[in-house]
TrEMBL record:
Pfam families: PS_Dcarbxylase
Residue list for modification Pyruvic acid (Ser): 208
Alphabetical UniProt keywords: Cell membrane, Decarboxylase, Lipid biosynthesis, Lipid metabolism, Lyase, Membrane, Phospholipid biosynthesis, Phospholipid metabolism, Pyruvate, Zymogen
Cofactor: pyruvate
Enzyme Commission numbers on file: 4.1.1.65
Name used for this protein in its record: Phosphatidylserine decarboxylase proenzyme
Active site: 208
GO cellular component, one term: plasma membrane
PTM (free text): Is synthesized initially as an inactive proenzyme. Formation of the active enzyme involves a self-maturation process in which the active site pyruvoyl group is generated from an internal serine residue via an autocatalytic post-translational modification. Two non-identical subunits are generated from the proenzyme in this reaction, and the pyruvate is formed at the N-terminus of the alpha chain, which is derived from the carboxyl end of the proenzyme.
Summary of subunit composition and partner proteins: Heterodimer of a large membrane-associated beta subunit and a small pyruvoyl-containing alpha subunit.
A Gene Ontology biological process term: phosphatidylethanolamine biosynthetic process
Catalyzed reactions per annotation: a 1,2-diacyl-sn-glycero-3-phospho-L-serine + H(+) = a 1,2-diacyl-sn-glycero-3-phosphoethanolamine + CO2
UniProt function note: Catalyzes the formation of phosphatidylethanolamine (PtdEtn) from phosphatidylserine (PtdSer).
Length: 249
């Protein structure tokens, strides 16, 4: 039909499908299945083997990688993570994202709105680019493994800062933070890469958090307690103010 709106793969029909399993997780799931088979078939230890098999299925589910339909307006900042909006606060950006380190201008040192998204072990853990642009910085910092829901996790936990510069020169920064269970942040991109909004840029294994730093003069369009979807939920429109107040039900 002329003028028909299609999905993000150019199709005109909507259909449900099983989400793919990201390659990063297939090896863990297959190792779990192999170990379960040895325990069940080789040792006949059903009391251990069946829970191990269930755990293997959970590992596959943890690394699921569903398709997302991404908003395309250039002034939008979309969520980089699935999860719960656990904190919205005014804070200075991390020092690693503030100044110009030769890779391009940073976020500055003045306080901005930070949106923190907590990912439980039941959420999708593939992280996506909140805007389209050029990856200017990826800075990994080792640290502790505190509960990612705590405010101080932004400064004390293992984390990775990413700075993307839009085509209009506006820098957008966000941080992947490891949590109690997470033990590795896996990047899919490197400095200098061009990324599209909603493109997969990395993952954090087994429970974590992502902080997004909105540009000055930009307020949150999401509420504390709201659930967001990576690559789909709009967190903010750059240059738009008028902070929402309320709670999600």
């Amino acid at each position: 039909m002329a003028g028909e709106l299609k999905d993000n793969r150019g199709r005109g029909d909507a259909e449900w499908r099983w989400p793919a399993i990201h390659p990063e997780g297939r090896k863990f799931g297959l190792i779990g299945i192999a170990a379960s088979a040895v325990v069940l078939l080789g040792l006949d230890w059903e009391i251990i083997g069946w829970p191990m098999l269930g755990l293997s299925a959970f590992v596959f589910a943890f690394f699921r990688d569903p398709e997302r339909v991404v908003p395309q307006a250039e002034n939008l900042i979309v969520s980089p993570a699935d999860g719960l909006v656990s904190l919205i606060s005014e804070v200075p950006p991390p020092p690693e994202l503030q100044g110009d380190d030769g890779s391009g201008r940073g976020l500055g040192s003045e306080p901005v709105t930070r949106i923190s998204i907590f990912m439980s072990v039941f959420d999708v853990h593939i992280n996506r680019a909140p805007v389209a642009g050029t990856v200017r910085r990826i800075i990994y910092l080792p640290g502790r493994f505190l509960n990612a829901d705590l405010d101080k996790a932004s400064e004390e936990n293992e984390r990775q800062h990413i700075l993307i510069e839009r085509a209009d020169g506006l820098p957008i920064g966000f941080t992947q933070i490891a949590g109690l269970v997470a033990r590795r942040i896996v990047p899919f991109v490197k400095p200098g890469d061009l990324v599209a909004v909603g493109q997969r840029i990395g993952l954090i294994r087994f429970g974590s958090r992502v902080d997004v730093y909105l540009p000055r003069g930009t307020d949150s369009k999401v509420l504390l307690g709201q659930r967001v979807i990576a690559g789909e939920t709009i967190l903010a429109e750059t240059g738009k103010q008028g902070l929402l107040e309320g709670v999600s039900l």
